[in-house]
Amino acid sequence: MSTTPIEYYGTGKRKTSVARVHLRPGSGEIRVNDKSMDEYFGGHEALKMLVKQPFALSETTDKFDVVANLDGGGVSAQAGALRHGITRALCEFNAELRKRLKKAGFLTRDARIKERKKYGQKGARRRFQFSKR
């Protein structure tokens, strides 16, 4: 029996989005929530390019099929989470890719999230209008 796994897993996060990514040896097809990537991201070419960046950098463009489950956040945050998850899965596939991917900033989790609203205020930082009289 072979000791190498058939698939590689990575969890990616950005803002409130979570991407559970499975890389399987294949022809380079990317499926997101049981839809093709073109169908899921529609006409957002920049987001599609963002998702494919780790493959271009590691020169594994047509080696893997991606099956991803995205949850939470908006479309842009989901694309960032998907990129993060693919990068982590690629590091699991080949640890030597880690240095190159880290230098490009793909392994860094973008932790910028919405600040909570505070009591006695209109929003996170916005106050109610001040009235002297």
Please give the structural blueprint.
Elements: E1 8-14, E2 17-25, E3 30-32, E4 35-36, H1 37-41, H2 45-58, E5 64-71, H3 75-93, H4 98-103
Parallel strand pairs: 3-5
Antiparallel strand pairs: 1-2, 2-5, 3-4
Helix pairs in contact: 2-3
Structural commentary:
The protein is an alpha+beta fold. It has one domain: 2-Layer Sandwich (Ribosomal Protein S5, domain 2), CATH 3.30.230. The chain is 33% helix and 22% strand. The protein is built from four helices and five strands, in the order ββββααβαα. The chain has helices at residues 37-41, 45-58, 75-93, 98-103, and strands at residues 8-14, 17-25, 30-32, 35-36, 64-71. The chain has a five-stranded mixed β-sheet. Helix 2 runs parallel beside helix 3. It starts with 7 loop residues before the first strand and ends in a 30-residue tail after the last helix. The mean pLDDT is 92.
TL;DR of this structure?
The protein has 133 residues and is an alpha+beta fold.
Estimate what percentage of residues fall within beta strands.
15-25%
Which sequence of strands runs across the widest sheet? 1-2-5-3-4
Q: If you average the pLDDT, what whole number results? A: 92
Instruction: State the end-to-end CA separation.
Output: 82 Å
Number of helices: 4
Q: Which fold name fills CATH's third level, the topology?
A: Ribosomal Protein S5, domain 2
CATH architecture label name: 2-Layer Sandwich
Low-confidence regions: none
Tally of separate domains: 1
Helical coverage, percent range? 25-40%
Structural class: alpha+beta
What's the count of strands? Answer: 5
* SSE series: EEEEHHEHH
